[in-house]
Amino acid sequence: ELKVEQNPLFLSMQEGKNYTIYCNYSTTSDRLYWYRQDPGKSLESLFVLLSNGAVKQEGRLMASLDTKARLSTLHITAAVHDLSATYFCAASSNTGNQFYFGTGTSLTVIP
Amino acid sequence: DAGVIQSPRHEVTEMGQEVTLRCKPISGHNSLFWYRQTMMRGLELLIYFNNNVPIDDSGMPEDRFSAKMPNASFSTLKIQPSEPRDSAVYFCASSPYDEQYFGPGTRLTVT
Asked: Using beta carbons and an 8 Å cutoff, which residues of A are at the interface with B?
C-alpha cells in the first residue's frame, strides 16, 4: 500500500513569510495532488502534478514533484491570512485509480 | 456541470437507526470514492468503485457499513445500525482518471 506522509502537521506563520510543506510517499507514483480544505468545507483541488520535475504555480502557492525522491513540496510565498486552511497531498498508484491521502497540514497565517 | 452532489447535507439520527447517504457523481466520471473524515482519524477511504464495480472496500469499518452503485449516476452508503462513533463528515468524490472531485459532504451526527 502506498503511504503518504506530510510535514509539518501544524504550521503557524506570520504574514509575509515564506514556508514549505513537504509530502513524502512510499512507493512509485507519477501522480501527485494537492488539495485545500477550509473549515467546515469540502476539499478543493489546487494542483495536479503528473510527471517528474513538474512545477505548477497559482498565486502565492507553488507545487513541485520529484518522483525519484518520492517528494512533493508546496511552497508558500509571502503568506497572507486568506491562505489559512488545511492542505492535503495525495498520491495515486500507477496500477490503479486509488488515491492515498496524507494527514494534512493545518496552516494558520497570523497578521 | 453541477459537480458531485451529496444528500443530505446534514443528518442527525439516534443510535440504532439506519442511515443512508447518497451521491451523484459528475457525469462521465468512471470512478467513485467514499471517504470519512473525523478529527481523530483524519480522512479515511472507505470504498471505491470503478465502472460501478466495487474495487476496494478494505476501508469499510465493519459489517454495519455497506455501499452500492447501481448505475453510473448514483451511489449510496448505508449504515445499519448506526452508532455514535460513526459521527463524522462523509465525502463522496468522483474521478475521470487522474483527478478527484469532491462533493460538499454529509455531516452525520449519531446521538
From this structure: 31, 33, 35, 41-45, 48, 50, 88, 90, 92, 96-101, 103-104
Cα nearest neighbour of A105 on chain B: B42
Maximum Cα–Cα distance for chain A, whole Å? 44
CA pair distance A74, A54, nearest whole angstrom:
12
Tens digits of residue pLDDT in B90-104? 999 999 877 899 999
The CA dihedral of A1, B27, A57, B42, to the nearest 10 degrees, is -40
* Cell numbers that stand for B86 in this block: 460513526
Is the Cβ–Cβ distance between B65 and B6 less than 8 Å?
no
Residues of chain A with pLDDT below 70 are 94-96
